[in-house]
């Protein structure tokens, strides 16, 4: 049975654990530094598994040693964004948390694939890569499925087309400089612009960019259901060696003309983690937006020391 550890038993961590359990991808260890919290969540999740006949076991723990033998470690530990806070405001505080978690992963789960979910996403993933010292293929960040999912949701609500028939892609930062690619978004086999005019597409892009902040404004805390759902698809791609193309924050080593930085790009995910980075042919405008997004990420990364 594969083992999936989720570090952080807050809303995002428990949502990810639930959705991984729903897919019966493996047994789950839920870790947190708060005494009782992961144990209580694990008990609740085990009851969920009993009710739904999901044959997986969830264990709650405050001891990093319990991640031993993990195939995948999902990192959700960290502070979340408060209203009026940008993701980058979180940078310095969460970097310290990610460094600490990463050192434990290096020690107790040295063969695992690591999926970082903590914001600011791309820079935290870079931090985990630097601190674990793992090959870059084994350290990746979640967010692309979230941003593309939000864009697809808006298209679905406008056009009344099944989600199954709407596909899209996003590049760059998980943040305000994200680069959605309407040109490469398809409804059925046709490009989005056959169904929506330019102004409506621009509005959908803008609403997608602001969706995370809008959720915080409305309910007072960050999204967690949708992040949990997306994380479970990445875990599934790795555990089942799916070779699925998933927008993933990945280490660029000459890809898209960039080096030594993490940013969202389409990746083939399988048992090896990020098995391939797909280089899309971009228009000049898309490329310029991607470069601008990379610049934002480099500025953030430059504030950290390794
Ligand atoms: C979001 C934040 C949490 O996009 O990154 O919902």
Structure in words:
Helix 3 runs parallel beside helix 4. It is built from eight helices and 14 strands. The chain is 42% helix and 20% strand. The strands form four sheets. Strands 3-2-1-4-5-6 form a six-stranded parallel β-sheet, sandwiched between helices. A three-stranded antiparallel β-sheet has the order 7-10-11, with helices on one face. The chain has a three-stranded antiparallel β-sheet with strand order 12-13-14. The longest helix has 22 residues. With 306 residues, the protein is of the alpha/beta class. The structure holds lactic acid. The site of lactic acid has 7 residues, from helix 6.
| Multimerization state | single chain
Number of beta strands = 14
| Helix and strand sequence | EHEHEEHEHEHEEEEEHHEEEH
Helix segment tally: 8
| Biggest β-sheet strands, sense, barrel | 6 strands, parallel
- In whole angstroms, the N-to-C terminal distance is 35 Å
Give the bound compounds: lactic acid
Q: Which residues sit in consecutive blocks of at least 5 with pLDDT less than 50?
A: none
Given helix and strand content, the structural type is alpha/beta
Strand content: 15-25%
The coarse overall form would be globular
- Widest β-sheet, arrangement of strands: 3-2-1-4-5-6
Mean pLDDT: 96
């Amino acid at each position: 049975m594969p083992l999936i550890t989720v570090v952080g038993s807050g809303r995002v961590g428990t949502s990810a654990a639930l959705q991984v359990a729903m897919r019966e991808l493996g047994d789950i260890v839920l870790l947190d530094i708060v005494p009782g919290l992961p144990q209580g969540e694990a008990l609740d999740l085990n009851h969920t598994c009993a009710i739904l006949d999901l044959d997986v076991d969830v264990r709650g723990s405050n001891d990093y040693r319990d991640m031993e033998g993990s195939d995948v470690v999902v990192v959700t530990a960290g502070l979340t964004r408060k209203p009026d806070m940008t993701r980058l405001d979180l940078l310095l505080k969460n970097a310290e948390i990610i460094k600490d978690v990463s050192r434990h992963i290096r020690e107790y789960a040295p063969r695992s694939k690591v999926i970082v979910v903590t914001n600011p996403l791309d820079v935290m993933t870079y931090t985990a890569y630097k601190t674990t010292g793992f090959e870059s293929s084994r350290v990746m960040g979640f967010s692309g499925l979230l941003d593309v999912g939000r864009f697809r949701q808006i298209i679905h609500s406008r056009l009344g087309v099944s989600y199954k028939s709407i596909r899209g892609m996003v590049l760059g930062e998980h943040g305000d400089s994200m680069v959605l690619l309407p040109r490469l978004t398809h409804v059925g086999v046709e490009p989005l612009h056959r169904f929506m005019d330019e102004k409506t597409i621009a509005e959908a892009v803008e609403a997608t960019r602001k969706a995370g902040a809008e959720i915080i404004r409305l309910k007072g805390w960050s999204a967690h259901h949708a992040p949990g759902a997306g994380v479970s698809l990445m875990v599934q791609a790795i555990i089942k060696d799916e070779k699925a193309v998933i927008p993933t924050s990945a280490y660029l080593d000459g890809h898209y003309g960039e080096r030594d930085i993490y940013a969202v790009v389409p990746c083939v995910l399988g048992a090896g983690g990020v098995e391939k980075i797909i280089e899309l042919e971009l228009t000049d405008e898309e490329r310029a937006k991607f470069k601008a997004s990379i610049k934002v990420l480099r500025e953030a990364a430059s504030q950290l020391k390794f």
